[in-house]
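Review form for a predicted model. The reviewer records the input and the model, then writes brief findings.
Reviewer: anonymous (R2)
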Amino acid sequence: MSEPVPPAAPPRPRVDLWLESRYRKLQRGLPQTVFFCPECKGDRRRRRDCAKCEGFGKLTRESVQELIGRRLVPAMGGKYGVFHGAGREDIDVLMLGRGRPFVFEVQGARNPDVDLAALKQEIEQRAGGAIELAPFVRVDRRRVAYWKETHFDKIYLAEVAVDAPPGEAGLAAARAFDGLTLQRTPQRVAHRRADLDRERALRVLALDPLPDGALRLRVHCQHGTYVKEWISGDEGRTTPSLASLLGVGARCRQLDVEEILTDDVDGPRLPKPAPREA
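Model under review:
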């Protein structure tokens, strides 16, 4: 007589998880989140005949979100993942220093007790040097709101191309700048942002010549400062700008986020501009 077959173990219940970390982005051309094609929006049917993305549905093969989620979600047996970043940098900008904080939300995880240290190492190895991660920490959903709603100063490094060598007076004025700049919504984002004037605090920390005639800029900015436009002036939409202080045309040739001055990072902070009267 055959032995009775024991009943199958019930499936493990699904849980939602939130994992906090920081990423350092060490490769240009890598967006933070999935860069869907603006024409077909990545739709499976529409992308087949899309000339802009040639059927790929995206404009880049990878993103920080995908490099992390592609391993994290399956390892935890999750249904899907959601990336919550504390702001974002442009696709052509590196994120250096301690990295940008984020929370990765794993919905419907059936295997929550994975080795997070080993998983972090695997993600970095598969990324091939494009990103580095701080250790994952389990948090609750309130951390998503904290990183989304709390604003921090930032320090940027930039290479600045100039139309002509600036004079000593212009260099002195630029190096001494420590004040407010008024920025109208930049032309490059006007199609997706409200047309507003924003006042932001900014302090030049260093401005030095490079061998090819360009300048190397280190600048401390309030959250929400459009650094590329502060350098160029954006055809008069940002005043004062680095170009106006130098007295010559200027444009950002390369930009890096050196540090995000979160509460656990030492250093001075900029005074917040007073609210403007209506």
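Findings: The first helix runs from residue 64 to 75.
Further findings: The chain has six helices and eleven strands.
Recommendation: see findings above.
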